[in-house]
Amino acid sequence: MLPVRAIQVTRHGGPEVLELVELERPVATPGHVVVRVEAAGVNFIDTYQRSGAYPMDLPFVPGKEGAGTIVEVGEGVEHLVEGEGVAWAFTQGSYAEYVSLSVSDVYPVPEDVELDMAAAAMLQGLTAHYLVTSSYAVMPGDAVLVHAAAGGVGLLLTQLAVARGATVIGTVGSDAKERIALQAGASHVLRYDLMDDIATDLPAAVRGIVPEGVAAVYDGVGRTTFDGSLASLHRRGAMVLFGAASGPVEPVDPQRLNSAGSVVLSRPTLADFTAEAEEREWRASDIFHGILLGDLSVRIDRGYSLEEAAEAHRALESRATSGKLLLHP
Ligand code: NDP
């Protein structure tokens, strides 16, 4: 069997533990296809798995997301053919030249959508979609707060919330990101990196714009923003904590939800909003349609070679990026 290049993690740690290795090329088992990976998406979850924040069985190949071309079809696979472009968001092992995928995990990519674009839109697009439709379903006229609004999820979330009729207040960490978040449709952008105390300065700034507070906060930043997020909500608002880019939030006393105005705290994860095939297909087709119609703009920050995977992780973790990072094996 031909060797294929992949990134492997044999011990948890910093970006330096991402090692380029040669592994055996996968073969298509029943119900699976083997795909030549054109682009693998880099996501925050890859950094949590690498560092051990989400412990993994070692060794493992990182990367849950990508897009590529089917090169081999396993027994019993009827609706997919060799040469077809597909994308995925739930398969471990995407930082590699080839990956084996269960047919239930792949989405055929519409002809007019480039594979890079498909890889860039999957995981973060599906996430933004379930956040605005299901975690807190945005209503026309709502004001919502989106943290890291110029990030991968943030840019898509901002666009989808605006499309549903919301006024988006975004937070960002630089001048350049402020411009990018405004272009994505945010009406107001706050520089939380310049605030002395986010816990008090953020709600004051939000209430300067919307005196009663926002209907929902979408918070993927976590530790540094949680307190300020809670204090920015209006009565019975929705605190949607979906990530921990700055670190995990300390344990929360439920009484605080009472004091914040009977607010609802949720800590959702994508897998629970894509568990059923019908739901996955609805979300993926909405994302692809948005791209095809030009309603959803997917920003690719930078492409890296497989060898540069550590550099990509460093860039993502150091807040240096805006939009999607891709690896091109
Ligand atoms: P981003 O592109 O948004 O990158 C993270 C951004 O967070 C940074 O660019 C930075 O933006 C901001 N940030 C603030 N403080 C820090 C810090 N201390 N360290 C690093 N970044 C910081 O990443 P993604 O779009 O990939 O992911 C965003 C969040 O969404 C992550 O927490 C991720 O885990 C979560 N997520 C959750 C999912 C779910 O289903 N629950 C699914 C997918 C992602 P700025 O410079 O503007 O502050």
From TrEMBL:
Q: CDD domains, from UniProt?
A: QOR2
State whether keyword NADP applies: yes
Keyword Cell membrane set for record: no
Which Gene Ontology terms of cellular component type are present?
cytosol
Sorted keywords for this record are:
NADP, Oxidoreductase
Q: Which Pfam families match?
A: ADH_N, ADH_zinc_N
GO molecular function per UniProt:
mRNA 3'-UTR AU-rich region binding; NADPH binding; quinone reductase (NADPH) activity
| Domain (Enoyl reductase (ER)) ranges | 13-327
* SMART domains in the record: PKS_ER
Instruction: Output the superkingdom of the source species.
Output: Bacteria
Q: What is this protein called?
A: NADPH2:quinone reductase
**What is the source species?**
Demequina mangrovi
